[in-house]
Design a protein that fits this description.
This protein has 12 helices and 9 strands. The protein is an alpha/beta fold and 292 residues long. The chain has 2 domains: 139 residues, D-Maltodextrin-Binding Protein, domain 2 (3-Layer(aba) Sandwich); 127 residues, 3-Layer(aba) Sandwich (D-Maltodextrin-Binding Protein, domain 2). The chain has a 6-stranded mixed sheet. A 3-stranded antiparallel sheet has the order 1-8-2. Helix 3 runs antiparallel to helix 9, helix 3 packs across helix 12 and helix 7 packs across helix 9. The chain is globular and about 55 Å long. The mean pLDDT is 96.
Length: 292
């Protein structure tokens, strides 16, 4: 927002409203669609039915490199007609992707194998919910706002969340004794604008916004990188034990809850008359492009 205001010489100004005053994350897609507010974040994790093809980005084990994933997601959402159309159908224009850390685990139990998750009540959503179904885990749906209380009261034994920064900010490092380092999937945030508001902006100013959007992807990644080490230090200071998941078990996770889930996803898209295989192949190729 600062960049847009500066580069447009103040011709565009934003009113900043913080703290979920206008809507919850679950409801923001509809709120932006209906013009309750003009710009905000939506997520394929929270509204998968509204953006079905976009959910390819949140499949388990689809891409472990957050930077490659974010660049690939941004390119796909700005160039692939079917992905653009999903936002248009919601009366929205996609602006940029804001990346979090990979979704891993806080846990009350020291887990060193996939079998160690069995029998535990695990907070899941998005790609982790799909993985849990495939692996026979007990998945529990807990909204973000309720995770700390649910965790403290042992409603769940473990929680799949972005751990060292975002989970730390929610205070989960003061509740759980273990950080299980098994990347499950990448959480999706997209900043979008109401379509009517976008169309009301002159073309020269739209071009400046697009330029800032492209920069915002890297800005977000750089911001995340700058915070991760401090987040880990905060976990260590609180006495959280880091549990590096064995490489063989990570490979087993990808084998059992990665590609099989992708195949199920393609089938579900095909049943909706959507080009699932082409979008999956496109996204994986984009991820590989940005890994280089």
């Amino acid at each position: 927002m600062d960049k847009v205001e500066q580069r447009t010489g103040g011709r565009i100004k934003f009113e900043r409203i913080f703290g979920g005053s206008l809507s919850t994350l679950l409801d923001q897609a509809a709120s932006i669609k209906d013009g309750v507010f003009d710009v905000g974040q939506v997520s394929y994790v929270y509204n998968p039915g509204l953006y079905p093809l976009g959910t390819v980005t949140i499949l388990p084990a689809i891409e472990g490199d957050t930077r490659a994933w974010a660049y690939a997601t941004h390119e796909m959402e700005t160039t692939i007609p079917e992905l653009i159309a999903e936002y248009t159908a919601m009366n929205q224009v996609y602006m940029f992707t804001w990346a979090l850390e990979p979704m891993e685990f806080y846990s009350y139990v020291k887990i060193t194998s996939l079998d160690g998750f069995k029998g535990l009540k695990i907070r899941v959503h998005g790609g982790s919910a799909l993985a849990a179904q495939k692996l026979g885990w007990i998945g529990v749906s807990v909204p973000w706002e309720e995770i700390a209380v649910a965790s403290a009261n042992r409603v769940v034994d473990a929680a799949c969340v972005p751990v060292p920064v975002t989970g730390r900010d929610a205070g989960l490092h003061t509740i759980y004794p273990y950080y299980i380092q098994l990347p499950v999937y990448q959480f999706h945030f997209a900043t979008v604008m109401n379509l009517q508001k976008w169309n009301s902006i002159p073309a020269d100013l739209q071009a400046i916004i697009i330029e800032c959007n492209n920069e915002a992807v890297e800005d977000a990644l750089d911001y995340l990188d700058s915070k991760i080490e401090q987040g880990k230090q905060d976990l260590i200071a609180e006495g959280v034990e880091f549990v590096e998941f064995p490489a063989a078990e990570k490979a087993k996770f990808a084998e059992l809850a990665g590609a099989p889930v992708w195949a199920d996803w393609v089938v579900s898209m095909n049943e909706k008359g959507l080009p699932g295989q082409r979008i999956l192949d496109t996204f994986r190729a984009l991820c590989a492009k940005y890994e280089q």
